[in-house]
Design a protein that fits this description.
CATH class of the largest domain: Alpha Beta
Number of strands: 7
CATH topology of the largest domain: Alpha-Beta Plaits
Strand content: 5-15%
Strand order of the largest sheet: 5-6-7
Length: 233
Amino acid sequence: MKSFYASIDHDKLPTQVARHVTSRPMMNLLVQYMRRTVEYGGTFREVSCGITAGCCLSPLMGAFHLHDLDVAMTTRHSGCFYIRYMDDILIMAPSRWKLRRAIAAMNRELAALGLRQHPDKITIGPIARGFDFLGYHHAPTGLRLSAVTVKRHQEKLTRLYEPYHRQLRAYRNGWGGQSTIPGRHDAAWAYLNKRPVVTSHEDITQLLKVYQRRFYRWASGGLETCGKNYLPV
């Protein structure tokens, strides 16, 4: 979906949550959570539509908002396979006619919620051709990382190179041997579990290789039966 969190209606969401939550203080907190005031560049404005994407409560509120869609798709289109993870939806049907009917019904439900599909993230075609879902490419030949996932990983590796290169320059300028990468919140700490000391370009290459190996091990979790099909080709 396009801008899912930013498109959630502030009038519809409380009505949907009220079906399951009867506590008035809790509903009052929910309204305050949605209708908030934000500051940017010294300017304050009230948010009239959408919820915060980075809030831990937002996934639950998003599930409440799409509950009607889930019910409609699973009860009225029993001949199709429907699954949703957050705002990513997968529909499989035995025929093209049933698929078109299910997509039309889904679009009606999304329109009723004030949502719409993302024009650049829609794939329609035979299952035998394979498809991407949740970062993986699903095909009859096996399961592997999608091309988009690999591309994003390569971009992250490129961004990781910059702090290492700054550390190398500091070392060559007489730096005393302590890591210049700050704190435990650094991406290198999360993946390498240590403060690496970079003294040459070879050190940077080795660190990025370790990062890449750990990424592929993480991405292959639970896919032992697929052998090496999870690796990019």
